[in-house]
Design goal:
alpha/beta, 5 helices, 3 strands, 43% helix, globular
Length: 131
């Protein structure tokens, strides 16, 4: 149902016009609800090649693809951070969105708001930047 909702053609052309791709950015396409389900998306391999151990989960349907990806990422050993206000509640029910956030927080990862995650990322960048 959602397969072509973002359009067809090369992945860069299917992104929202406001996104700017960096030279180190990677794009992958998934063919299952989870971006981490073995054999359905090359994302885990691409992250492993880069030594990435933490993933930030955002998306359109919190209790379907986002939750599936978070669970599978955790199972594969990634540190999972679900960005609470960057997951859309396309189901239309706040109770479904909130139930998923509670489940992730209890069992599969952390749940944080965008502002807090951005502040932590900026602090990490500042720590790594020579004075």
């Amino acid at each position: 149902m959602f397969r072509n909702s973002g359009g067809t053609g090369p992945l860069p052309g299917r992104l929202w016009h406001g996104f700017t791709l960096g030279a180190d950015d990677i794009l992958v396409e998934k063919s299952a609800p989870s971006a981490f389900f073995p054999g359905r998306c090359p994302l885990p391999e691409r992250l492993q090649e880069r030594g990435i151990d933490t993933v930030l989960i955002t998306g359109t349907v919190t209790n379907v693809c986002c939750e599936s990806s978070a669970r599978d990422a955790c199972t594969l050993g990634y540190r999972v951070i679900m960005i609470a206000d960057a997951n859309a509640n396309a189901t239309g029910r706040d109770c479904d969105h909130n139930a998923t956030l509670r489940t992730i927080y209890r069992s599969f990862g952390d749940v944080r708001p965008t502002a807090e995650v951005l502040a932590r990322l900026l602090a990490m960048i500042e720590e790594q930047t020579p004075a």
